[in-house]
Amino acid sequence: MRHSRLVARARWVLASATLVPLLLVAWVALPAGAEDQPLPHALTHQHYNGYQVAPATPGAHTGESQYKNPPSPICTTTTSAAANVNTDCDATAPHNETSIAVNPTDTSNMIGGANDYQLNLSSGGTINETIFTRAHVTFDGGRTWSEYPIRYNGYTATGDPSAAFDDAGNAYMATLGFGFSQGGPTGKNPDILVAHSTDQGRHWTTVRVAKGTGSFGSVGRFNDKEYLTAWGDGNAIVTWTVFHDGKGGSYINSPIYDSVTHDGGNTWSPPQEISGSAPFCVGSNGGDACDQDQGSIPTVAADGSVYVAFLSTRETQNFSDQYVVVKVDPQTGARIGGPYKVADVVDGINDYPVNIQGRQTYQDSQFRTWSAGNITADPTDADHLAVVWSDMRNTPHPVPSDPYQATTNSDVIVSQSFDGGKTWSAPQAIAQPGDQFMPWGAYDTNGLLRIGYFDRSYDPANHEYGYTLATESAPGSLTFTTAQVTTELSQPTTGDRWFAATVNPDFPFATTFIGDYGNIAANPAGGVVAYWTDMRNQACFTSRCGHGEDAYFASMP
After folding, report:
1. Torsion-angle region of residue 22: left (phi > 0), alpha (psi -120 to 50) or beta?
2. Which residues contact 433 (CB under 8 A, 6 or more apart)?
């Protein structure tokens, strides 16, 4: 998710970019002859970007049950020994916003989560679409993948997946749960859901952790961008943003909340606010509350301490963000330390070009982006933490708002702490040509920081991207060597099948969405695994073909 929580909602969408990128569509039906539409639509709730869920047409529910109640497993890929493996097997549809976890009790077992879109063209020519998060599961170290359903009874759509294992091998998958009206473009504000599995991801039980209130465009609580981590036997924490909306959906504030479980996900503590206040924060009411936040990620340190990092908007600084860290009690989830400031982030109103949806983007592009990364803890040193993100500090300024007039150079930025998050090193860029974005950090078993990210340095035109893994040369050095993970590049600036928009005739069918994050995870057996949105494959649906979006996997030493 991403795009600044500004007091004026219109400015909020155009500002720094810390909004809510949900990609969630309910059961959307389009009439016959809609084959020229660049389905599916990546939607957020209405009062953020003006989009609406398409109203259902008569007969639109035909076949819906096959998506809500598919067989288990749904499908299985062909076994592959390739360096890059496509984990998708459920027909032609996009997959994005990838999260992956490795089972510490059996490292050949991994679980990936993705926004899985389901598309169906009925015999009458109606296009039906749903989105339900599914578990992509491997039992052979990533050579073969099966998709298992997660039951979301009563929910029309789910998304923003986050996967985790605890030390005992219990699996968890967090998502947002949506309810959309089938008769029109309205929907209930989403709930926070966490599913858990005790059999390596084959069967799941879903629990509602927090409930949204109100509906799109009304007074209420809009839960957004949840993420979780787990530890020990049955312990997990999930954090998220609560957008407090006033009359007409007007923005009030957006603090960070959390909830914990200690029984494997069967029950969860009452949600509580953890973002706190600090002199360096500027609250929505002019105070010092850190309450204009997004992109929270938790991590567990070697001694069992739990830390949460998030972006907090600075209204007085071009509506740019700063990274903030808090320490929470692993038993109760209550904040017990911080907020501690990590660094200022160069992601303000004038630091990025803007796409057709009013979102931050890059040179010659339309896909939305943001600066968010994550926090990770060194397993060899309980006080050693790192926060990674991307921003535009090395892009020539001023930056034109028109992406086709801009030259951008987004870089991955790193800061580390050796005192449990109280103080942080000066931000340091991994300087590369072109744009690097949506980074994810993980310390490996040797205490080396590894960072995976989307990377356009492979293309002199700064258009196509690969996925890169940066590896620290020595623990704590913040000096890195880089290696390309992807064996083929992806082209997001033209020729997309799904989330396409033509703004510049030289770049027809540019993608507006590839997800808001990719993921890597440390492998307890050594090295890391990577999971990202890849566009190398052609996707054909109805009468048009273009670049697809698939969830790809690789293992790196």
Report:
1. alpha
2. 409, 457, 462
* 475-487 tens-digit pLDDT: 999 999 999 999 9
**Segments in the chain below pLDDT 70:** 1-68, 181-186, 284-286
- Residue 94 amino acid letter: P
Asked if residues 112 and 99 have their Cβ atoms less than 8 Å apart, the reply is yes
- The per-residue pLDDT for 186 is 55
Within-domain flag for 1: no
| CATH number, position 145 | 2.120.10.10
Domain count, the chain: 1
Q: Is residue 80 part of a domain?
A: yes
> Which tokens go with 69?
């109640």
Global pTM reads 0.91
**Cα 398 from Cα 420, distance rounded (Å):** 37
65 three-state secondary structure: helix
Domain that holds residue 423: 9-556
| ω into 40 cis (within 30 of 0) | yes
Residue 2 placed within a domain = no
Residue 107's Cβ-count burial label (10 Å; 0-12, 13-18, 19+) is middle
Please state the separation of Cα 100 from the chain's center in Å.
12
Whether omega before 70 lies within 30 degrees of 0, making that bond cis, reads no
In a domain, 541, yes or no: yes
Give CA–CA dist 403/87, Å, rounded.
32
Q: In this structure, what token pair is assigned to residue 385?
A: 């933490």
pLDDT digit string, tens, across residues 52-87: 222 233 333 334 456 667 889 999 999 999 999 999
Q: What would the DSSP string read from start to end of 435-496?
A: -EEEEEEEE-TTS-EEEEEEE-TTSTTS--BEEEEEEESSTT---EEEEE--SS-B--SS-B
